[in-house]
Amino acid sequence: MSCSTIESLETAEQRRGAAAVENQRENTRKIRVSGAERALAELLGSANIAINGDKPWDLKLVDPTVLDRVISRGNLSLGEEYMDGHWEAEHLDEFFHHILTAHLDQRVRPLGLAFHAMRARLFNLQNLSRAWAVGEVHYDLGNDFYAAMLDPRMTYTCGYWKDASNLAQAQEAKLDLICRKLQLEPGMRVLDIGCGWGSFMSYAAEHYGVECVGITISKEQTAWAKKRYAGLPLEFRLQDYRSIDERFDRIVSIGMFEHVGRKNHRVYMEVAHRCLKDGGLFLLHTIGKNMRNTTPDPWIDKYIFPNGDLPSIGQIGDAADGLFVVEDLHNFGADYDKTLMAWHANFEAAWPRFKHQLGERFRRMWRYYLLSCAGAFRARDIQLWQWVLSKEGVVGGYHRPDSAAHAAPALDVSDLNF
User: Fold this and answer.
1) Which residues are catalytic?
2) How many CA atoms lie within 13 A of 76 on its CB side?
3) CA of 82: how far to CAs of 9, 53, 56, 92, 331, in Å?
4) Environment class of 239 (CB within 10 Å of its CB; exposed 0-12, middle 13-18, buried 19+)
5) Alpha-carbon distances of 116 from 5, 133, 358, rounded to whole Å
6) Which of the four pLDDT bands, split at 50, 70 and 90, describes residue 198?
7) What mean pLDDT comes out for the span 132-140?
């Protein structure tokens, strides 16, 4: 037998061996995927969700290998695979409504996310050096982008829909409700911790004759608000809340406490206590969770709100202990579902203006963010609270104002002395 013949036989044998190994790997992968699909199908079935089913909230696979990754990495992978176009759901909000109503998030605990949970519990992820990250990543996306999604006042928090028929009405109803809960009077000085684009400050100045100081960690918000409200008695500062040391008649914080973090809750309350005059009121408007010892959602943390940390009622109570009397606690979390769906409708309608700048993966990311959160509020998995706090207790008791949405008439601020 010639050398060339021997080499040919050896090469053929090597090819057969390599093919056998590859076949074995493929069979193993199919078994693994099949097992993952069965396990996930059973889990989803308990929430009335089918894989490749016909219901609007069913999960439709574009890439079947998604299942293994979702099983191993949970919601982080679920979101990333959606961003990459590997699965679809016609009504993504209803998909998450079903998932969370059935508490499937509590039944899938990937070991790969253990470090994320440990990191949130052990480290102060919202310290001074980290606190500015969410402003740069999320709130500085661009004012034009948010103007297209939000109401005319650029209010990026839950609206109050009791008597409202559209987003603008719901947001003004919420702002007026806050003003009445704070019992604002002309000439009062108000601190807004996390003022955003100044929606509350402008409304309170125009309708209740107050002057306001607002702080934010977003450069884009500060520049926009200073220009938009140059004629009102409003001061906008690019500043961290921990450095405030002034006195105010009233304090408000709308949609900012979610970024404070459990390691800083007490410090935040101490700042509010030292800045609030005796006899004043402090209104805290925040998203909250139902249990204290839970981990921030890893996908939201990575792509939407870096270092965010939703508080529980118990955590807020601990932080306020000995500093404030809780005068009132109001939950209208179901209204956030309607708010998010309105934002999503505006976002989709405006998308043609931004698609070349931001790209399809961003569109899927933002859709996943808005609709997954809408589903979470619809399932009552997370809440929206308004707390009214005083330093020593309101003499005779505090009485929550009528919640009917009747906006106060605008004042002529030129007639007011500040």
Assistant:
1) 373
2) 17
3) 48, 17, 16, 10, 32
4) middle
5) 58, 18, 28
6) very high
7) 50
